[in-house]
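ingest -> fold -> write
write: protein_1
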Amino acid sequence: MKLLQWKDAYSMGEIEIDKQHKGLFDLSNEIYKLVEAGVDDNEHFRELFMALNDYSIEHFIYEEMYIQEEGFPGLEEHIGQHLKFNDKLKELCVGIDKETHIKDIGEFVATWLVEHVINEDMKYKKFIETKK
């Protein structure tokens, strides 16, 4: 698992989306810090993952409405990626008391966030920029 560092290259050029992305990075980093500190409190992690789930849903709705307003042709595919993230997070968290390791969940979240912003969100950023 890795600590996420916000970079200007991740900016979408839309203030609220950038703020929300930074918030998601912060939640991922909270998980990282607890894992690194050796915290083994499933209840604490459960609360953190529920907060991450709630925040990601709020962000996804905002982002999807934004790119719909901009006429982004890849909207349906983008929504599908968001749904897959939420399904995978739920699947991992349901097993938190079983064989799923907190570190594995944190690794999934950190990796997905960076890859999604760099690879997928940049598609709508480029589309919007070409419209101007």
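write: protein_2
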Amino acid sequence: MLEADARERVIVALDCDRARALELADALSGHAAWLKVGMTLFYAEGPTIVRELRERGFKVFLDLKLHDIPHQVHGAARAAALTGADLITIHGLGAGAMMAAAREGVEEAAEGGERARVIAVTVLTSMDQQALSDIGVELPVADEADRLARLARENGIDGVVCSPHEAARMRELLGEDALVVTPGVRPAGAALGDQSRVATPAEALAHGASHIVVGRPITGADDPVAACDAIVAELVRDA
């Protein structure tokens, strides 16, 4: 894999405040192509933070995990796309009509141009079998992820968010063009934090991921740029 291709596969998660997010963005310019804005940062700063990151040349993954009635998700997906976000998440558990509404919302925002992509969360990487059972889902984790991925595909969604452990199956189910985005990625030796189902960056891509999301191993490192470059180098070497 070429270095430029490897950089396109890594999404750096900015789970911090605005000042730190912009500091990291400025440092990572030329080293990372994608940044992730999650709920903590977006709820604090609103659409402005997406625009500021886009102005710095980054693609933005807006990870709000939309989950509501179809009418609300249609409007929320449209508004999220209008911020300039390139990739938006919804919850697969919202069911088919909600997912179709999200697709309609981003298409409406695009006005016939290139639209934001929408991916559905299957099973959060912090959840294990006991956590699923606690909310009344008795299917094995892999089967639940399969079920929600099929539903997403049937309703025009561009791919899924899943753990690296489900990536190979998602690729098989959804085909080569689907986005398969995997959080729960930790370089060898990194702390697991609150993630239960993890893999190294190279393992995630080998299993079928199109993109990997890496947060604290980069943003919490003494030298975030060196940490990001090390992950890219691993992908070039091993993917």
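write: annotation protein_2
The chain has one domain: 3-238.
The chain is about 50% helix and 15% strand.
pipeline exit 0
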